Amino acid sequence: MAHGKLEFIDVFLIIRKDDHSYTLCTNTGMYCLALANKLQMKPEAVREIGLGGMLFSIGKKISPIM
Asked: Are 34 and 50 a contacting pair, CB within 8 Å?
């Protein structure tokens, strides 16, 4: 994310398109965080995996059709 143009706020912009997608993204991020913690990964990796889970569907932010 540091090298790309995605920002954390992009996750929240999805709600403008679809409440279900917003909920799916945040839930996926939480599940990823829980799994990374369970696997006792380093804090930096836990953060990256959690954000990756939240951003997995970020393309819906600009998609005209859901």
From this structure: no
In tens, the pLDDT along 4-42 reads 565 667 666 666 666 777 788 889 999 999 999 999 999
d(CA 12, CA 58): 10
The answer to the question of residue 4 being in a domain is no
Tell me which amino acid residue 14 is. Answer: I
| Boundaries of domain holding 42 | 9-57
Any domain includes 50: yes
Q: What is the pTM of this model?
A: 0.64
Token pair for residue 5?
A: 């143009």
